[in-house]
Amino acid sequence: MAGPNTFFLVHLLSAILAFIQFVDSSTPWISNYIEETNLAYVKDSGICETVDGVGQYSGYINVGDKNYLWFWFFESRNDASTDPFVLWLNGGPGCSSMIGLFTESGPCTVNSDGKSTALNPYSWNNYSNILYLDQPFGAGFSTGITLTNSSAAAIYAWTAFQVLFTSDAFAKYKNHQFVLATESYGARFGPVFINHFNSQNELIESGELDGVKVIVSSLMINDGKHDPLINFQGLVTFAQDAPGYGPLVNSSVISTITKAFENTCRGLLQDCYDADISKSSGADTCNTAITTCTDDVMSPAVGDRDPDYLLASSSDNKVPTTSYATYIRLSEVQDAIGATLLSSKPTFDQCDDTTHALFSQSGETGKTFLPELSGLADSGFRILIWGGDADMKANWLGLHQSMVQMSWYGNQTLNDTALTNMSINGDDVAAFAVVDNFTFARVYGAGHTLPAYKPQVAQTIFQQFISNETIHSVETSVTGSSSAAGASSTASSSDAVRLQHPGICALVLIYFISRYSTRKLL
Questions:
Q1: What's the whole-model pTM score?
Q2: Which residues on adjacent β-strands are paired with residue 440?
Q3: Please, which pLDDT band fits residue 3 given cuts at 50, 70 and 90?
Q4: Is 105 a catalytic residue?
Q5: Of 82, 119, 191, 470, whose CB neighbour count within 10 A is largest?
Q6: Angle at CA 101, nearest 5°, toward 397 and 199?
């Protein structure tokens, strides 16, 4: 006759088996999984951020009609309750913000083995709460309808923050200083998003819209693609004699790209600027312009160089490293961070080619986006435009000239203001000019994804900017700017099991609870 212990074990086993059958195979059960209205995420996965007491959330925002934006958020290592809230967007269009997280400004970097991480002492969450958002749909883990322009993307970004700022996890940040930081094609995303947010805020203020205001207080754009015509013209000058580096190509190539710009590229881009891209003929005009200028001016100017970093050589280890893409595709990492909440086998695209192609075909990539930025600059909005001086994709001469030619009250003053050197421990690391709330900076030796090449410089400028300080020289006796200590993290099978599965007692408890309730993701 079976004793009471046997009876208990039988029922315990039955409970566990019933629980396993209950769980939807397409939705991994994670012990720190949290679901709110239109929001599903994992809290404190233990991946990347390893500093004790620093929280993180990663998951999906349901922005309607089976459209989901992936995010990864890290609390400040300093004071999460008062530090600014930063939204980071990579460019592309269609590139994942995981690039920024793992290679530029996030709490960790991925080691060359592609299986482990190391603490980043120059992480921007040393001074801020920072959210990395994959957008538009198709970028990284985000999934949904295909978009073709920044205005459409702004609508979904607004919806995402309506979800976030009414959630238990993020509502506390809605009144924090909000900084939008972006790069490259983010020169389009940033101003367009802020202008859309401002128009929505006005509707809320007037009572025409029910929602939560999303008030962005400042904008940072590094290595931005603001104006194709000025950028290509600047590239010709830059290739002829890059300040600090000298001629990048021989006189024959200079002659070729000069003629291509003057005889073909300039006229095509001007036609694009005059075109109505809501019509297919206008979109075709702009698509032709940007592809022709890229082929006839950019490609010969770059030659065999890395357009992201003109100082790179074939013997260099690639910067930024792509090891993070290997790491984030590991099944145990995806399970731990909640990337599998929508699908057991999510796809991760570092940069989505389809999105990039459709934005180009829509005509948007050939257009200038200076009018969207000029309105903000003219209003006294706090703005930092900065670029690496070893970047050929968005050369800094073109960046500076774009800001000078942009229609705003400070353009002539910026043109007449000499750049002032900034130093760290006595070494010149950047040069800058300030016109009221507008700052322009050139960072020496940095490539297209600026913080990846000069992390200490980038973090220093970032910290000064979000603290509403004018850029200035500093003396520091420590490596990195954070006293926080943390361990590296390794994606092992034991970690995955620990992160995914609660203890047996919790399983039994959840089973009994599940008999009276069901759940559906988002």
A1: 0.87
A2: 385, 433
A3: low
A4: no
A5: 191
A6: 70
